[in-house]
Specification:
heterodimer, A: mainly beta, seven-stranded mixed sheet, four-stranded antiparallel sheet, B: mainly beta
Chain lengths: 113, 110
């Protein structure tokens, strides 16, 4: 158990809908990273928050947004969902940023039908 | 653009033989490099990292990696592979975007 909690574990929703994925980092970790993992795209970096502030952004779609709250948990919001958004979404947390080890949650498997 | 590359999609070895998973990097300045492993339907697990210092880094489960600045490589190695090492291995670098290579599937046959 990495200590990073992601909810829900599985999510099935229809095209055009909006969902929220939640990540609770390990106690004491200030950084949260979000990733999308699909068979054809590999593990894609979406966004990094450090202590509530956006630190870096990857090729995150405009339909996707994220935030990190004062208690350091993070949420990834996916809207206007398309079939191609079906994937495994991971979050990871670390104490610091560049040099710190990131610990990954078990992921949320999103299926858009 | 900064990146890491894993030139092999798959590596197959027999149990007890040495295992090498290759990674090359294109990162400016001092690279922060990592290796992670992913087992089926699981999140990624940290194996080892190179920040600075000794070029030979020792990690979890008997793995080690050698940082080679002249060849811009950071290959993962294990002297004697186990069937349980069969998994998906990722090389990564962190420039505030913890970015991963495409991954290498390792199969260790008994």
């Amino acid at each position: 158990d990495s200590g990073v909690t992601q909810t829900p574990k599985h999510l099935i929703t229809a095209t055009g809908q909006r969902v929220t994925l939640r990540c609770s980092p390990r106690s004491g970790d200030l950084s949260v990273y979000w990733y999308q993992q699909s068979l054809d795209q590999g593990l894609q970096f979406l966004i990094h928050y450090y202590n509530g502030e956006e630190r870096a952004k990857g090729n995150i779609l405009e339909r996707f947004s994220a935030q990190q709250f004062p208690d350091l948990h993070s949420e990834l919001n996916l809207s206007s969902l398309e079939l191609g958004d079906s994937a495994l979404y991971f979050c990871a947390s670390s104490v610091g940023d560049r040099g710190s080890v990131a610990f990954f949650g078990q992921g949320t498997r999103l299926t858009v039908v | 653009a900064q990146s890491v590359a894993q030139p092999e999609d798959q590596v197959n070895v027999a149990e007890g033989n040495p295992l090498t998973v290759k990674c090359t990097y294109s990162v400016s300045g001092n690279p922060y490099l990592f290796w992670y492993v992913q087992y089926p339907n699981r999140g990624l697990q940290f194996l080892l990292k190179y920040i600075t210092g000794d070029n030979l880094v020792k990690g979890s489960y008997g793995f080690e990696a050698e940082f080679n600045k002249s060849q811009t490589s950071f290959h993962l190695k294990k002297p004697s592979a186990l069937v349980s090492d069969s998994a998906l291995y990722f090389c990564a670098f962190n420039d505030y975007k913890l970015s991963f290579g495409a991954g290498t599937t390792v199969t260790v046959r008994a």
